[in-house]
From TrEMBL:
Its cofactor is L-ascorbate; Fe cation. Belongs to the iron/ascorbate-dependent oxidoreductase family. GA2OX subfamily. Pfam families: 2OG-FeII_Oxy, DIOX_N. The gene is GA2ox4-3. It comes from Triticum aestivum (Wheat). This is gibberellin 2beta-dioxygenase. Keywords: Dioxygenase, Iron, Metal-binding, Oxidoreductase.
Length: 343
């Protein structure tokens, strides 16, 4: 029997997108973490966009630059050397395949598990220089995640201030993931008009509480606004970008909304590289609206009770673009009005 392998070129053509022009979004809220009113600004941005950038964050540029340089070195190494750290199942080096359920993107990446404040043994970094650089960087991201989550609690009037931050950085068992994505220029786009592109990382929301992203100066990240419009996020090497994840949406009973985002690889000559810290809680953590939420936030829970372990298991069985929260929504409550109609 002749088994026909799917030609690589066909897989790539499937990633080609219809030509489009995207608005570069000048409205991304930039929160000055050192400024007065930062907590209120964080909550406003999370309610309106589920997304914001942070400036004056206190993360030394050297920590970012060192990791970026080590990551560039890793992705420039031979395919055989990179493959020695793979396949990503889920942790390790991966190329084009994202997750286990058939998602593809024009991207190669390292996906790594963090235990407490350092890379776990389950996901060894390819070189000790890269390992050291990741560990320093992750330490800084844990600090930033803590500050952001404390500000969310403060801005919402939830006490104690550490109620959310402790789930991610206060528990040795918290579930943190780190990822470095590399989007090389796509040869398929050579000679095509400038508005042609390929899917780098398909649209999705992040399942955790919060994700913190840094990228080099190459654009590609896009977010969906609440009116459904997709806009491009102008890159900013001096800032970090924060995404509200699905779990934070549930913990705030839908007041903060997780942001749909994606990466589109365009016709440019430069690679895009991004580094993302995903802050999740321990597997046993109950994900349910915080009891301390202020009056004015929808009083009936919008979601049924679940643990992060249950949600994570369901998430890793889903496709990237699925609405992962839908199966966890609470059944509609019968109102007296609705009952009257039924009888
Ligand atoms: C297709 C998938 C990749 C993903 C696991 C999933 O089944 C659905 C969620 C995906 C996502 C998105 C955010 C992060 O990049 C990620 C590491 C995560 O926690 O959820 C990825 C997962 C992955 O790449 O394995
Ligand atoms: O690479 C990026 O810029 C974003 C990727 C992303 O959203 C993810 O890895 O979850
Ligand atoms: Fe993401």
């Amino acid at each position: 029997m002749v088994v026909l392998a799917k030609p690589a070129a066909l897989e790539q053509i499937a990633l080609l997108r219809t030509p489009e022009a995207w608005e570069s979004f000048s409205g991304v809220p930039a929160v000055d973490l050192s400024g007065p009113g930062a907590a209120a600004d964080v909550v406003r941005a999370c309610e309106r966009y589920g997304f914001f950038s942070v400036v004056n964050h206190g993360v030394p540029a050297g920590v970012v630059d060192r990791l970026e340089a080590e990551a560039v070195r890793f992705f420039a190494s031979s395919q055989a050397d990179k493959d020695a750290s793979g396949p990503a199942d889920p942790f390790g080096y991966g190329s084009k395949r994202i997750g286990r359920n058939g998602d593809m993107g024009w991207v190669e990446y390292l996906l790594l598990a963090i235990e407490r404040d350092a890379l776990s043994k389950a996901s060894p970094a390819p070189t000790s220089a890269l390992r050291d650089a990741i560990n320093d960087y992750v330490g800084a991201m844990r600090g930033l995640a803590r500050t952001v989550l404390e500000m969310v609690a403060e801005g919402l009037g939830v006490s104690p201030r550490g109620a959310l931050a402790d789930m991610v950085t206060g528990d040795a068992a918290s579930d943190q993931v780190f990822r470095v994505n590399h989007y090389p220029p796509c040869p398929l786009l050579q000679g095509l008009p400038p508005n042609c592109s390929v899917t780098g990382f398909g649209e999705h929301t992040d399942p955790q509480l919060v994700s913190i992203l840094h990228s080099n100066g190459t654009p590609g990240l896009q977010v969906a606004l609440h009116d459904g419009r997709w806009v491009s996020v102008p890159p900013n090497r001096d800032a970090f970008f924060v995404n509200v994840g699905d779990s934070l949406q549930v913990l705030t009973n839908g007041r903060l909304r997780s942001v749909r985002h994606r990466v589109v690889a365009g016709n440019g000559l430069k690679s895009r590289m991004s580094m993302i810290y995903f802050g999740g809680p321990p597997l046993a953590q109950r994900i349910a609206p915080l009891p301390q939420l202020p009056a004015g936030t929808q009083s009936l829970p919008l979601y049924r009770d679940f643990t992060w372990g249950e949600y994570k298991k369901a998430a890793y069985r889903s496709r990237l673009g699925d609405n992962r929260l839908a199966p966890f929504e609470a059944p509609p409550v019968a109102t007296p009005h609705a009952d009257r109609h039924r009888s």
